[in-house]
Design goal:
mainly beta, 14-stranded parallel beta sheet, 421 residues, 26-stranded parallel beta sheet, 37% strand, 3 helices, 40 strands
């Protein structure tokens, strides 16, 4: 009986060892370390290649073991001919030291393949593109520096994710990207055209665009730009089209405009010290009707079409806020120390023939030099800051200088009142 129990214990222990071994094997098969061990050094793809001509034609995980320094013009250092490729630059540099200006001279080229990951390195000095992937979707770029390339730093297509990438001193756009992209924690500086050029449905968070030759962040329709900064760009800081929103952004010291949206929304943003009317020769906008009016150079925040501009600060610009269309609205904004006007917009016509922009609950201080500089409605006679009747576009402009409690101040309780001090 005693031996039987002993044998039973031995059998149970052996069974447990077998089960644990199987479980450990299953765990190892799914372990990321095991996957990492299967990575392929790029030199193994093309043993005879020195610094260019590498072609990846199979799915898999590849990595660099050294810098790739090409001295030839019109070359592609790495070309990818497969879906589902991961390429880790492993902290190394891919560059071209020739004087080539050919658009065929690219660091990495992806030809109509999807699901590509490129990460952890520096690509610079190509006559064409750092990364050229104009028809590649569902790609991820992260932890990269893309600099000093003759054309775009990166050109890539739809549904891509770009994270923690620096685009510096490229000849055209820093990043040119298609629809429905996610761009986070990126910087674009000193590029020859736009810092970021995005199509429709993109989201940009925590990005910085500074010192670019045209626009810092240039977006199409239905984009979200949030917690981003645009500064010292030579035209506009942020420019967005229909259905787009700029939220919690800062746009300062741009030569033309701070933020300009068409049929979009600007909220909780700061625009400061943008532009000088000397650039276009005049601080007076065209006084055509409706949408033919454009913002003059130096406007902090410009809204065209059916734009909403609210809860913003716009200070020290030529003009704080300018609505170019009778269909826009500006409310609950603070405008201070703008050199010409605080808030400017298109009025409603007395006969109702023009719908009119809505300006209400804005607080203006020390804008321009004339009594009407804090709140200006193009075409409204001096002293008339709002119309009565069904077509109101402006509330009264209430001066609250030195007033402790504004409740008793005339017109302070008007639902469309604007304030100055």
């Amino acid at each position: 009986m005693k031996n039987t129990r002993f044998n039973l214990y031995r059998f149970t222990a052996l069974l447990l060892i077998i089960c644990c071994s199987l479980m450990l094997q299953a765990s190892t098969d799914n372990c990321p370390v095991a996957v990492a061990d299967a990575r392929i050094p790029l030199d193994a793809v093309c043993p005879g290649c020195v610094n260019s001509g590498f072609e990846i034609r199979e799915p898999g995980s590849y990595y660099l073991t050294r810098n790739l320094i090409s001295t030839e013009g019109a070359v592609r250092v790495i070309r990818i001919f497969s879906d589902n490729v991961s390429l880790d630059l492993n902290g190394f540099l891919i560059t071209n030291t020739s004087t080539s200006t050919s658009s065929e001279d690219n660091g990495i080229e992806i030809l109509s393949y999807d699901n590509i990951l490129i990460q952890n390195g520096h690509i610079k000095g190509f006559g064409g593109y750092g990364i050229r992937a104009p028809t590649a979707d569902h790609c991820v770029l992260r932890n990269l520096i893309i600099s000093d390339n003759g054309r775009e730093g990166v050109e890539i297509d739809d549904l891509c994710t770009i994270d923690n990438v620096v685009f510096n001193n490229n000849g055209e756009d820093g990043l040119k990207i298609g629809d429905n992209a996610l761009i986070t924690n990126c910087t674009a500086e000193g590029n020859g055209r736009n810092g970021f050029s995005v199509e429709e449905g993109c989201e940009l968070y925590n990005c910085v665009a500074t010192g670019n030759t045209f626009i810092g962040i240039n977006g199409g329709e239905n984009n979200i730009v949030e917690n981003c900064t645009a500064t010292e760009n030579l035209n506009m800081g942020i420019f967005l089209f229909s259905g787009s929103i700029a939220r919690n952004c800062t746009s300062t010291e741009n030569d033309g405009y701070g933020i300009w949206v068409f049929n979009g929304t600007v909220t909780s943003c700061y625009a400061g010290d943008n532009g000088d009317c000397v650039l276009d020769g005049s601080c007076t906008p065209s006084l055509g009707s409706g949408s033919s009016i454009i913002c003059p150079q130096g406007t902090g925040i410009c809204g065209s079409g059916k734009s909403l501009v609210y809860d913003n600060h716009s200070n020290d610009n030529m003009i704080g806020i300018f609505l170019t269309s009778e269909d826009g609205a500006a409310f609950q904004n603070y405008c201070e120390n703008n050199r010409h006007q605080g808030v400017v917009g298109i009025p409603r016509a007395v006969d109702g023939s023009v719908s009119g922009a809505m300006h209400f609950r804005n607080l203006c201080h020390n804008n321009g030099s004339s009594p009407r500089s804090n709140l200006t409605s193009l075409g409204i006679p001096a002293g008339e800051f709002y119309y009565t009747g069904p077509d109101i576009s402006y509330g009264p402009l209430v001066n609250i200088t030195g007033v402790g409690d504004i409740i008793g101040t005339t017109n302070a309780n008007h639902p469309l009142a604007n304030f100055e001090f």
